[in-house]
Each structure stands twice: as structure tokens, then as C-alpha cells.
């Protein structure tokens, strides 16, 4: 989304923990647009989260943040029952999916209120907005459920203050990380980003790609017990494959 916003002439601030990745994105943006780019290196999993937030605030103290995109997040390495989720993974899930999103909103909401304009985009998950349950990913699904309800509530709170709050729910997007190719149901990242930006200012919860919106509707027609059974069976298979891969790695 940063690249697409820059193409529209909007200056961007990138936040991440990898200096090399931030540098790569900065080079790509500057090669495709005239937008100004700032990078802030912050690891949100550091013990002192407030120090990282203070660094972000200081780095942007001289500019007005008009659009805040919260897309930081983490899921399970592979499916597992809740009693198998260790303390470290649980902390990461809640920190990155809930706490960071909340604190980033707190950071820039006052200035948006003062200027009476702004947009806050929180990236949700089909595990919550579309599926009736997401067994073996319970903590992740619960955390993303928080993001969706937070977005819905803030939309109502601030829609008369000139601030658009929205939770965007993607299903499948073809990226290098997902190692999937673009298809009819899984759009390329650049194309999806264009759609995501075009949807800003509409419903509080939205799936930008129309094909995935149709998929969402079809899923709602399937009785919940049947859908629950399908999801449980599928995620149990993911768990078995993940455990086998993990055990094989331990033997090496």
C-alpha cells in the first residue's frame, strides 16, 4: 500500500524492524514516484514497547499523519491447540495484533482530531470476518477479532469528526511471502493494494477484492456446523504436517 499511496503523491513513513527491507521498499518507492519517504527502525517485540513508540513519534513530530495503516501482525507457525501455544508465541500474537495496533492509533488520533480529517486502516483477517470459527488458531483469531471490533467501534465514535476508520479483510493475496501466484481468487499484491486504497472511506469492514466478497457471501450460506467441521479437519492436517516438519528438523 505504501507504494500505491506514493504513486498518488502522498509522502510515506515506513516502520519496520529490518533496515534492509525498509531500504529496499524506499528504493522502490523513490524509483516509481516523487513522494518523500521516511523510515523508522523499530522492533515491536522489544521489551520496552513505549521506547519504540516514542521513537516513531519523534521521527514524525514535524509532519501530519493523514493516513495510518496498521498491517503489522503475526500468526501461528502452524496450527495447534491452545494448550500447545507457548508463552512466547502468545505474547507475540497479542503484542503485534492487538497492543501495537491500539497504541499506534492512540499515537496519531489526537492530531487527526485536531485537523478534523484522517483515515485509520486496520488489516484484519478472514479467520474472523468471514469464517464462523478458526479452530487451532484460536488466539490469532481472537486477536484479529479484537482488531475488527475495535475498528467498528472507532468508526462509530469518529465518523462525525472527519476520521474514517476501517478494517480491511483480505483473503488470499499473491506475495513473495505467501509463495503463491496471482490467480482469479488470489490477486497480485500491487493490484490488491490499488483496490484497498480505493475502498478507504466506505464501510467500516470491507473486503476490497470483489471476487473475495463473493466468496465471503458463499461461505455465509454454508451451515456453521458444517463449516466448523471442514475448518477443524483442514487445520488438523496442517497441524500434523507442521509437527512432522518440526520433528524432522530436530533430528537433523
TrEMBL record:
Coiled-coil annotated spans: none
GO MF annotation list: oxidoreductase activity
Which family does this protein fall into?
Answer: Belongs to the short-chain dehydrogenases/reductases (SDR) family.
Per the record's keyword annotation, is Oxidoreductase included, yes or no? yes
Q: Which PANTHER family is this protein grouped with?
A: RH59310P (PTHR43899)
- Please give the SUPFAM superfamilies that the UniProt record associates with this protein: NAD(P)-binding Rossmann-fold domains (SSF51735)
What is the recorded name of this protein? Uncharacterized protein
Organism listed in the record: Physcomitrium patens (Spreading-leaved earth moss)
Record keywords, A-Z: NADP, Oxidoreductase
Top-rank taxon, per record: Eukaryota
- For the keyword Oxidoreductase, the answer is yes
Amino acid at each position: 500500500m505504501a507504494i500505491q499511496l506514493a504513486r498518488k503523491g502522498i509522502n510515506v513513513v515506513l516502520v519496520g524492524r529490518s533496515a534492509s527491507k525498509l531500504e529496499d521498499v524506499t528504493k522502490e518507492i523513490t524509483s516509481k514516484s516523487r513522494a518523500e519517504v521516511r523510515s523508522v527502525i523499530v522492533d515491536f517485540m522489544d521489551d520496552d514497547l513505549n521506547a519504540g513508540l516514542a521513537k516513531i513519534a519523534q521521527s514524525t513530530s514535524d509532519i501530519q499523519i493523514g493516513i495510518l495503516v496498521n498491517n503489522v501482525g503475526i500468526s501461528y507457525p502452524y496450527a495447534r491447540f491452545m494448550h500447545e501455544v507457548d508463552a512466547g508465541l502468545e505474547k507475540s500474537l497479542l503484542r503485534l495484533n492487538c497492543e501495537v495496533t491500539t497504541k499506534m492509533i492512540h499515537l496519531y488520533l489526537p492530531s487527526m482530531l485536531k485537523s478534523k480529517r484522517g483515515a485509520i486502516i486496520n488489516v484484519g483477517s478472514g479467520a474472523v470476518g468471514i469464517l464462523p470459527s478458526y479452530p487451532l488458531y484460536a488466539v490469532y483469531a481472537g486477536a484479529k477479532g479484537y482488531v475488527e471490533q475495535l475498528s467498528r467501534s472507532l468508526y462509530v465514535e469518529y465518523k462525525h469528526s472527519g476520521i474514517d476508520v476501517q478494517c480491511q479483510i483480505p483473503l488470499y493475496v499473491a506475495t513473495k511471502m505467501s509463495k503463491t501466484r496471482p490467480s482469479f481468487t488470489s490477486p497480485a499484491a500491487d493490484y490488491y493494494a490499488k483496490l484497498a486504497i480505493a475502498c478507504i472511506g466506505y464501510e467500516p469492514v470491507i473486503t476490497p477484492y470483489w471476487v473475495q466478497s463473493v466468496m465471503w457471501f458463499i461461505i455465509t450460506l454454508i451451515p456453521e456446523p458444517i463449516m466448523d467441521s471442514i475448518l477443524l479437519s483442514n487445520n488438523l492436517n496442517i497441524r500434523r504436517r507442521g509437527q512432522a516438519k518440526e520433528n524432522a528438523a530436530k533430528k537433523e
